[in-house]
Amino acid sequence: MNKVNKTVLTLLITVTIVIFSNGQQQPIQINGVFPQMTVVSDHLNRSEAGIGALLPWANKLWAVGYVAHVHGSGIGLYEINEDMTSRKHPMSHTGTYANRFIHNKSNQAIIGPYVIDTSGNVRIIDDLKNYRLCATMQHLTKPDSMVYFLTMEGFLFETNIYTLKSTRLFDLVKELDIPKSAQVHFKNGYTNDGKVFVANNSYYEEEFQGKRSAGRLAQWDGNTWTIIDKNPYVEIAGKNWSAKDYGDPMYATGWDRSSVILKFYKKGIWKTYRLPKSDYSYDHAWNTEWMRIRDAITERFLMDVHGTFFEMPCLSYNGNIMGIRPICTHLRIVPDFVSWRGMFVMGSDMTDNSSGQPQSGLWFGNIDDLWKFGKPKGVGGPWYNTQLKAGEVSDPYLMNGYDQKTVHITNHSNKDIEVTLEVDYLSNDSWNKYKTIKVPAGGYVYQVFENGFSAQWVRARIDKEAEVTLQFTYN
Q: Most buried pick, 7, 10, 201, 341, via CB within 10 A?
């Protein structure tokens, strides 16, 4: 046998081993993507085919798809096995779902309208399967047998986890005084500190122009609904520690014209922080989808918001938010992510009906691969055409984890002002003066920070009443 024939034979044997090892064809994989796992709608009613939630349970990875406004067909509930084979479950129902929850008392998992026991047996909640489900939450008074479901339309249900009987409790559009002219887009809910918290991210042209405020971050204590903020919010998350010495903090993410908003809650007190936007395309209720805060690895959070992944702790001390650092920027829509069998898995929403047959895939990799994505960058700040009082101090704005930094200040008033920048490099509300910048009436000034200079947070203080825009550019 000549050398060429030996080489060809070796290649054929190698290919055969790869494709037919163990007598079975092995799944194709390209850079962490398995094309055969793609969630694809059929052509009966083309809409979207996003992957709304992921959940490791019953020795499998479960994924649930979603369409837009419950209009679409061909997708459902998916099971993924350790050999990277998958199937659509026979009980699949096409709908709009992005919720997941573990009900520990009954040892059942909830994903979409499906309830799954530890043996992988699936039941469907018929009362809820035709609603756009965005959150499942712990019940305030009957946590052993009941859970709450929140729909994107703003309906709050309670459901018996055994009988699956559901009862509607509230229409939050009415309870939270959301303008009738706005399309509601509730995104998530969470139970903490004896309260139910909900987020609605309505944001359209009227919100951008400041003519309407339809977004909501709100809470219910079992008796009364209270509006916390009227900006758009997409995520509320925490750990629900049984050991309260970890502080049991909770986070909520949203945005306004100025920046990403990060709300921090602990023991009944809210603090507001601000983060850069890496991409303005997320400034719309439809384009945000579900930007999550999830467990990346045990007792560690990842936060995806406005095109940036951040690492953050899930604990706190002395009522302060601990250090947050950007990992990467990206162009993805990531409705959910999870760790499974040593891999980091991301869902997606990739192709809708405007680009052909709707479909979305899963990405499997290592969590450290995130650091190979785009380098962190962003724009934002605490003030955007903001009317300020003399001596007013801004919310803290993230500085840690970015390279080149510049601050831009515009004075929209007819008098000279002084803006003092202060930094907190320990993330403990200990502020130090960095520099005072004079800005003439109707003028603009920028300040480039020294190479290598950074702190955890930066904030601004103004000396007199004025209308000011103050934005940071991080490259």
A: 201
CB-based contact 228:254 (threshold 8 Å) = no
Instruction: For residue 246, give the 3-state DSSP assignment.
Output: helix
Beta carbons of 282 and 272 less than 8 angstroms apart = no
**Residue 470: closest CA among 359, 347, 381:** 381
Give how far the C-alpha of residue 339 lies from the chain's centroid of Cα atoms, to the nearest Å.
16
The secondary element (H helix, E strand) that includes residue 344 is strand 343-346
Same fold, 35-372 and 379-474: no
Q: Which two tokens stand for residue 171?
A: 């229409």
Q: What is the pLDDT of residue 2?
A: 53
| Architecture field, domain 379-474 | Sandwich (2.60)
Report d(CA 472, CA 325) in Å as an integer. Answer: 16
d(CA 276, CA 38): 32
Q: Which residues contact 464 (CB under 8 A, 6 or more apart)?
A: 390, 415, 417, 418
Percent over 70 (pLDDT), the chain = 93
- Residue in this structure with the two tokens 């809409």, named with its chain if needed: 47
Contact 108, 119 (CB under 8 A): no
Say which amino acid occupies 159. Answer: T
DSSP symbols for 121-181: -EEE-TTTTTS-EEEEEE-SS-TTTEEEEEETTSEEEEEETTT--EEEEEEHHHHTT--TT
Q: Average of pLDDT values for 11-34?
A: 60
Return the ∠ at Cα 427 (arms to 375 and 275), rounded to 5°: 40
Judge whether residue 3 has pLDDT over 60: no
Position 33: which residue type?
A: V
* Ramachandran category for residue 427: left, alpha or beta (phi over 0 → left; psi -120 to 50 → alpha): left
Q: Which among 68, 65, 95 is positioned nearest to 78, based on CA atoms?
A: 65
Class of domain 35-372: mainly beta
Tell me the domain boundaries of the chain: 1-27, 35-372, 379-474
